[in-house]
Every structure is written in structure tokens, then in C-alpha cells.
Amino acid sequence: MSDFFVWSEKYRPSSFDDFLGQKSIVDSVKSLVAKGNLPHLLFAGPPGVGKSTLALIVAKSLFGSGWKSSFLELNASDERGIDVVRSKVKDFARTKAFNVPFKIIFLDECDALTPEAQQALRRTMENFTNSCRFVLSCNYPSRIIEPIQSRCVVYWFRPLGNDWVLALIDRIAASEGLDVDDNAKNALLAACEGDCRRVVNLLQAIGVGSKKVTQEAVSAMAGLARPKDLGEMVSLALKGDFVRARKLLLSILLDGNSGLDVVKLVQKEIWNLDIVIKEKLALVDKCAEFEFRLVEGSDEFIQLEALLAQFGLLRASQ
Ligand SMILES: Nc1ncnc2c1ncn2[C@@H]1O[C@H](COP(=O)(O)OP(=O)(O)OP(=O)(O)O)[C@@H](O)[C@H]1O
Ligand SMILES: [Mg+2]
User: Fold this and answer.
1) What kind and span of H or E run contains 44?
2) Residues 170 and 269 in one domain
């Protein structure tokens, strides 16, 4: 199997010039790299918008072809225990950087670390500031403790705008010989919501079977990610049939969907429901409240069950 079996890796930009969108971030990071003296960086933003990619580009631009020996990537949520992170950082930082003033440690998913672990990380950052720079990445910056935020230059990544996503589609279509018509492009834009990884994955999933990418193929493939019982679960909750709605919720979660995914899908589903706009607004507002609770780390099933209960209660009070 080729190294590039996965298109999201094959099409991962390896230079600032190939990187799409996030213009002000790229310009700022580029000028830091040009000065050669990098501060610690914190990349915050939703999935698939280039955080890890930009960290790799920084290392490649600073260190050239030997970048791998001066770059350590760790995933905070894999390595959960901060002790593992600390000992890996220590081992890495101990050996002198070859021909470069410092090494780079890229720590992904930092918001998965507990506040106590983040305090330990902060001390580790201080201990190794002479020999290492940290690039931290997270989806939810509000979960990063203030002392870490204040030690970093913080960049907020946004979902990519449509023009950039279209440029990405064209880039891949040209390279793979795919024919993507305008309707298919619109369907891709709607399905990915600015998440490049999702676009690339959808194009690969369809493109391996057929060079012609159609709106139908995109909808069918993107729809796979949407649990089939979701609409029914919401309708049952609205009707007050809580017991059956709850059963469907359990099976949707057991199918491997995350609580956050379910809230987002439920929120979208609200706009398709046959209810008055005032009810829709109230339900959307509830979704935001429960999304916040999940982001803060509450139990998924309990929170989603409570959200379903809110649907029933809201409807009953109208
Ligand atoms: N700005 C971009 N320009 C071009 N391709 C991109 C860009 N951002 C992401 N991609 C594509 O999406 C893939 C995933 O991007 P990346 O790993 O940088 O996401 P991320 O922001 O780190 O997401 P996560 O929060 O899930 O770690 C890349 O390999 C690349 O194929
Ligand atoms: Mg990443």
C-alpha cells in the first residue's frame, strides 16, 4: 500500500504557498518563521482546517529536509497522562538540536488535558523554553488554562470559506482526473462546512469508484454519516414519546456517533421539522445550551437524554 493511500495525507500542503485560506494567520506565522525566532504558538479552531498542517509547514520551513529529527508530535488525548508527555518531551529535548537553535514540539488536542495536567504542561514548557518551542493545538481554546494561553501567540483558525474549498476541490480533481460538476461542488460545500479533511475524504470515497463525481454520489456518501434514525428520534421526542426516542438515542450513540455530532445533527434537523418558527428558535437555543455542556465534558447520554426531554417539554408548553 502506498504511503499516499489516504488522500488527506497525499494532499496535505507542505509549504505556505500550497496552504489554502487562513490568510492573516499564514502571513503572521510566515513572518515569525522568517525571523527565525519562534514564540510558543497555540492553534485553535474546528477540525480539518489546517492546524496540524501549518505546524508541519513551520517545522519544514525552519529546518529544511532534516526537519523530522527536530520535530516531535504528540497527541495529548492519546497520551492522556501528562507524565507520558513530560517524559517524551524530556527525552526529545535532552539531545542537542543539530544545526538549529531549537526544536519544535507539536502537542495536538491539548484541550483533552485536565487543568492539572495543563499546569504540569506549563511547567514543562517553562523548563524547556531554551531548547524547544511548543505549538499547541486544540478545538476549544476556552478549555486551555490562562497561564498557557498567555505564554503563546494564539491563532484562531476558521472553517475555510467556499472559495478556498472550491480551490481545493479543483486541485484534487485536476490531479486525480475527476469530473466534478457544479451541482456536485455545491453538495460538497454543503456537506463539509469548511472542513477540508471532510471534502478530501468525500472526494476519495467517491473518486475511487468513479471519475465522475455527481451531486447524487456526494449526497449519498455524505448522508452515510447521518444516523438514519435521527429524524425519527427527534419526531418521537417532540410527540412526547420519550421512551422510544431514548432507545433510538442509545442505538445512535452505540453506533459510534459522538454526543457532539448528535447535537449538531439534531440542530440541523430542527430546520426540516414541520413546526412553527418560534418553536424552532426555542429548540435551536436548547441545542446550543447542551452543546456547551458536552464541550465542558458532561456525560453524553445524560445530556442528550435531557435534550430530548426538553424537546418534549417545550412542545407540551406551546
Ligand atoms: N488550509 C488547508 N489547505 C489545504 N488543505 C487543507 C487545509 N486544511 C486542511 N487541509 C486538508 O485537510 C487535512 C487535515 O488537515 P489538518 O490535519 O491540518 O486539520 P486540523 O485543523 O489539524 O484538524 P484536527 O482538529 O482534526 O486535528 C490535511 O491533510 C489536508 O488534506
Ligand atoms: Mg490536527
Assistant:
1) strand 40-44
2) no
The pLDDT assigned to 79 comes to: 60
Nearest in space to 133 (alpha carbons), one of 34, 42, 13: 42
Query: Which of 20, 23, 25, 53 best tests ligand 1's pocket when mutated (most atoms within 8 Å of CB)?
Result: 53
| Predicted confidence (pLDDT) per residue in 211-226, tens digit | 999 998 998 888 655 6
Give yes or no: residues 149 and 217 share one domain.
Answer: no
Domain that holds residue 55: 22-156
Which ligand lies nearest the alpha carbon of 13? 1
Residues 207, 123, single domain; the answer is no
| Grid coordinates belonging to 246 | 431514548
CATH number at residue 278: 1.20.272.10
Inside any domain, residue 166: yes
Please choose from 12, 73, 260 the residue to mutate so as to test ligand 1's pocket, defined by most ligand atoms within 8 A of CB.
12
Instruction: Report which ligand 1 atom has the smallest distance to the Cα of 7.
Output: 31
231-250 pLDDT, tens digit each: 889 989 988 899 999 999 98
Query: Helix 82-94 vs helix 115-127: angle between axes, to the nearest 10 degrees?
Result: 10
Residue 56 has pLDDT above 70, yes or no: yes
Q: Which helix (H) or strand (E) holds 3?
A: none
pTM score, whole prediction: 0.79
Query: Quick one: what percent of the chain has pLDDT higher than 70?
Result: 95
Residues 241 and 206 in one domain: no
